[in-house]
Amino acid sequence: MYTPVALLCRTPARSRLLRTKFMHAAIPSLSISGPAVTTSRRFSRLSRTSSVTSILKAVKDDGCVVIESMFTPSQISRLNKEMDAALANVSAGRPANANTPPLPGGIDPSVFGHNTKRLGNLPSSSAAFREDVADSESLHDICTGIFKETGDYWLSTAQMIEIGPGSKAQPLHADASGWWPFWSMGGKWTPEFAVNFLIATTDTTKANGATGVVRGSHRIKYHDVLDDATLGFWQFPDEQVEQIELKAGDCLLLGGRIVHRGEENKTTDEFRRLLSCTVISSTLTPEEAHPLLLERERARELSERAKKFLGFRELATTIGPDVWQDHQQGGLKRALGF
């Protein structure tokens, strides 16, 4: 998911986005602890049957991990068929949020990709998403492990991102930066509170825009660099951005702090599709209001796990009160009637 950097910091939003878009200078060390950024080794590649412990360790060590064949060919085929129809009605060069006003200077295409389409509200438009992604055994096992320090979790936003031929690389960013803990946490306790499952529904290659990741950037101490109003701590030279190629059905799981971007599609005829599925702690507010958007009759058909994931059940936290409650009726199941 790409959250426009103009929404994330304290200096005037529009001028900051313009500055950030056209800056591309390396910032020494960037308060990254541990080894210097290097391209001498590959990021971990595990399988759908790998233990949750090994997946969590890879995310902690590297900030991301590839889970190969997380989704089956039949699931991907079904999802793509639904996306073919939905994306046909989507305009390129715009964010998934239709309410986002155009950026100044007509730079929307350069920020969001002039030939890139983004589709949100997938629970409403895709049965494959509701049944195969929102109720994925692997996804929920991983999320249970990731969020055990803070409590339950729910879906923030799911977006299909199709990078078409000629689209340039998007600005570098970290997905968790849309929520305040990203900017305020110190170094003593830094649980993951937002992660992104990037699910490839087509093969992603270095040529067609495979996601680029900056090794070691999940260790940036953001609370030490807040005075850098230019967001210079997200500027890295191209040689430090490693592209991670995926086969259709693979998932690149990104921790919330690692710096990454969708890369340039240098092909003339390939459309690179990734389903971006951002999951957050139950203590935070989702980007999309799924319980208000998904029709009740469709929500009734969901498994209990998927109902909770999309906000049709109350959620527990490890610190503070449980959330999304109906105190008088003793739970959303009774209040909703399903």
UniProtKB/TrEMBL annotation:
Cofactor: Fe cation
UniProt keyword annotations, A-Z: Iron, Metal-binding
Gene3D superfamilies attached to this UniProt entry: q2cbj1_9rhob like domain (2.60.120.620)
Gene Ontology MF annotations: metal ion binding
Pfam families named in the record: PhyH
PANTHER family documented for this protein: PHYTANOYL-COA DIOXYGENASE DOMAIN CONTAINING 1 (PTHR20883), PHYTANOYL-COA DIOXYGENASE DOMAIN-CONTAINING PROTEIN 1 (PTHR20883:SF15)
Family statement drawn from the similarity comment of this UniProt entry: Belongs to the PhyH family.
UniProt-recorded name of the protein: PhyH domain-containing protein
